[in-house]
């Protein structure tokens, strides 16, 4: 976005093609191979890992294969609760058309307005309602995958199969390096009878994390559960225009006394949780009752449905706020990780402190926003999102400084026991940590798979691993 604003356009595709069918994809791939061209598939273009950037050293003609016209639902199977769709369908359109038939796919990433079914699969995506419906790997039943060696597909669409290693797991997360996803079959669910929002406020982020840990132990998490720290809580409330926010209510002396005196909350430490309950009426009532009881044990105070609805929807505004901030010299973005429960609080605290130290060391002259939220709950850990931004006025190399800070933050995440990514994927931005994450043998296996399925490196976006050798030779 910054390069576009400043006219610093790097290496870009030479040609854009829009296939309308799997047959078109096969024809394009055959033509690309015969003409010694490279292909980079693109879905919604929402990647934040430089996954779609054209490698600057690529000398061949680069074709951008835009899947935008392959955007229809092929069929809905009401008996088996599955849906077959083309890979280019946008999440928002998929959900809207399923809703019209009485179903939902339950996959709701922050990028649902623009991201595609094929993109979800190729990046191992996760959605905000993962707790109820699962991640994309839990939803995926079958797919068609076109490679330079031919099309990969099973002969049956069964819920599970014991037939050696699962090839779908190789395609999930392959990030456009092995071929093109053309169609996919996913699970669908009847629309919930009830959808209800909720919220809580806790005196400290640590108490909120403890609340989440107990929820995971008891396995009573609702469809969505998100804990924001104090910095993000304040920012979210400052953006709110209605007069019924928690922040506004604290202006009332009685409300302030209840929260700060009787409950012992400090305005500069308190944090918030937003909840989404989905299911049958009695199921939602029971979930809400159990969470309300549990929250009290961790000094939580119920915040009401409107605050929960606002907090959930605010997530979709983050990218727009990022782009708006650029008008005022503010550079900001998000990055995420997964982490075991016993390391969540330490990791969050350490990474935020490191961001502030690095920014100061690199010459940032103004206070830095460094905040985090816990967004997905698992038995053994959680997903943590970080948001950070700074005012780049007075700096000649703001983008370079941003990259250095994020790299240092990622090193700290790994040092604290976190992963290189939870669902954004690797792309080129996080490729440097692949070897330490997987080990040399695993990287060798990935390269061997690449060499077998794409020996001429036609799918040359250079994500995940480095490819050695000329574009027309074995790897």
Give the tags.
475 residues; alpha+beta; Uridine Diphospho-n-acetylenolpyruvylglucosamine Reductase, domain 3; Alpha-Beta Plaits; GMP Synthetase, Chain A, domain 3; 5-stranded antiparallel sheet; 18 helices; disordered C terminus; flavoprotein; FAD binding; lipid biosynthesis
Write up this protein:
The protein has a seven-stranded antiparallel β-sheet with strand order 14-11-13-12-16-17-15, sandwiched between helices. Strands 4-5-9-7-8 form a five-stranded antiparallel β-sheet. It has a three-stranded parallel β-sheet with strand order 1-3-2, with helices on one face. Strand 16 and strand 17 form a beta hairpin. By secondary structure, it is an alpha+beta fold. It has helices at 2-5, 22-34, 91-100, 117-123, 130-133, 136-139, 167-171, 205-218, 230-238, 246-249, 253-262, 281-297, 305-314, 318-326, 344-361, 398-415, 434-438, 440-453; strands at residues 15-17, 38-42, 62-66, 73-77, 82-86, 103-104, 140-147, 150-152, 180-187, 189-190, 194-202, 224-228, 271-279, 301-302, 330-340, 369-377, 381-391. Residues 469-475 have low confidence and may be disordered. It folds into three domains: 10-191 and 439-475, Uridine Diphospho-n-acetylenolpyruvylglucosamine Reductase, domain 3 (2-Layer Sandwich); 194-317, 2-Layer Sandwich (Alpha-Beta Plaits); 328-415, GMP Synthetase, Chain A, domain 3, CATH 3.30.300.330. Helix 15 runs antiparallel to helix 16 (398-415). Homodimer. It is found in: Peroxisome. Catalyzes the exchange of an acyl for a long-chain alkyl group and the formation of the ether bond in the biosynthesis of ether phospholipids. Pathway: Glycerolipid metabolism; ether lipid biosynthesis. Keywords: FAD, Flavoprotein, Lipid biosynthesis, Lipid metabolism, Peroxisome, Transferase.
């Amino acid at each position: 976005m910054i390069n576009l604003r400043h006219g610093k356009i790097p290496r870009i595709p030479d040609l854009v093609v829009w296939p309308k069918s799997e047959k078109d994809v096969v024809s394009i791939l055959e033509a690309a191979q015969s003409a010694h061209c490279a292909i980079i598939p693109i879905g919604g273009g929402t990647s934040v890992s430089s996954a779609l950037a054209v490698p600057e050293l690529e000398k061949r003609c680069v074709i951008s294969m835009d899947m935008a016209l392959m955007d229809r639902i092929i069929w809905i199977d009401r008996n088996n609760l599955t849906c077959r769709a083309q890979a280019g369908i946008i999440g928002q359109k998929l959900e809207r058309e399923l809703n019209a038939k009485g179903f939902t796919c339950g996959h709701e990433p922050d990028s649902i307005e623009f991201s595609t079914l094929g993109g979800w699969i190729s990046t191992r995506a996760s959605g905000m309602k993962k707790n109820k419906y699962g991640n994309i790997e839990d939803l995926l039943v079958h797919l068609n995958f076109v490679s330079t060696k031919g099309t990969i597909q099973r002969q049956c669409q069964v819920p599970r199969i014991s037939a050696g290693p699962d090839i779908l797991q190789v395609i999930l997360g392959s990030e456009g390096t092995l071929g093109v996803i053309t169609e996919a079959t996913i699970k669908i669910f009847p629309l919930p009878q009830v959808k209800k929002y909720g919220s809580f406020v806790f005196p400290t982020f640590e108490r909120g994390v403890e609340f989440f840990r107990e929820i995971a132990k008891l396995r009573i998490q609702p469809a969505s559960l998100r804990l924001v720290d104090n910095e993000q809580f304040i920012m979210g409330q400052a953006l709110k225009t209605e007069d019924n926010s928690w922040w506004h209510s604290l202006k009332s002396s009685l409300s302030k006394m209840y929260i700060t005196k009787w409950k012992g909350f400090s305005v500069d430490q308190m944090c918030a949780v937003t909840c989404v309950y989905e299911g049958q009426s009695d199921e939602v009532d029971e979930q809400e009752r159990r969470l309300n009881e549990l929250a009290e044990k961790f000094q939580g105070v119920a915040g009401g449905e409107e605050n929960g609805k606002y907090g959930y929807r605010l997530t979709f505004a983050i990218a727009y706020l990022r782009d708006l901030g650029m008008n005022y010299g503010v550079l900001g973005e998000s990055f995420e990780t997964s982490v075991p429960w016993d390391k969540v609080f330490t990791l969050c605290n350490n990474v935020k402190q490191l961001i502030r130290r690095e920014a100061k060391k690199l010459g940032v002259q103004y206070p830095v926003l460094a905040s985090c939220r816990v967004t997905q709950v698992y038995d053994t850990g959680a997903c943590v999102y970080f948001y950070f931004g700074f005012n780049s006025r007075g700096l000649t190399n703001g983008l370079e400084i941003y990259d250095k800070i994020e790299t240092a933050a990622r090193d700290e995440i790994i040092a604290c026991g976190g992963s290189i990514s939870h669902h954004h994927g690797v792309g080129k931005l996080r490729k440097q940590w692949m070897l330490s994450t997987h080990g040399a043998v695993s990287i060798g296996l990935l390269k061997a798979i690449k060499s077998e399925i794409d020996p001429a490196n036609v799918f040359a976006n250079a994500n995940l691993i480095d490819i050695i050798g000329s574009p027309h030779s074995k790897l």
